[in-house]
Amino acid sequence: MVYELKSPLLGFEEIKEFDLVEVDEMFAKIKAINNPSIEITLANPYALREYSFDIPAYIQALLDINAQSKVRVFCTVVIQNPIDESRVNFLAPLIFNDDNQTAAQIALSIKDYPDFSVADKIKNYVKE
Hints:
Layout: E1 2-5, E2 17-22, E3 27-32, E4 39-43, H1 45-48, H2 57-62, E5 71-78, E6 87-88, E7 94-97, E8 102-105, E9 120-121
Parallel strand pairs: 1-8
Antiparallel strand pairs: 1-2, 2-3, 3-4, 4-5, 5-6, 5-7, 6-9, 7-8
């Protein structure tokens, strides 16, 4: 499904639209529409750990999120070899509103979410 990015994706400010493809219940990928060579791996944080945060009001307004909206959350992953050394950024989740195909990334404060990190090893959460 193609989403319009309503706020810049950190490090990829030129991306305005991307295709979201779910790989399985844990992983997904986004591929930039204007540059298909840009592909980012995502993880469903709820499949990995207990994960909760408040979506800021400005993001709710930007994505037209209300109590009935179908919202999904993913976090970026830096893939490593071996895969269990891959890193998940829990402090900058991507928010997807499936109702209107819009998305945005937010930067959470480590002060507000001290249990989250920008580079948690995935092996800390995946049971073998």
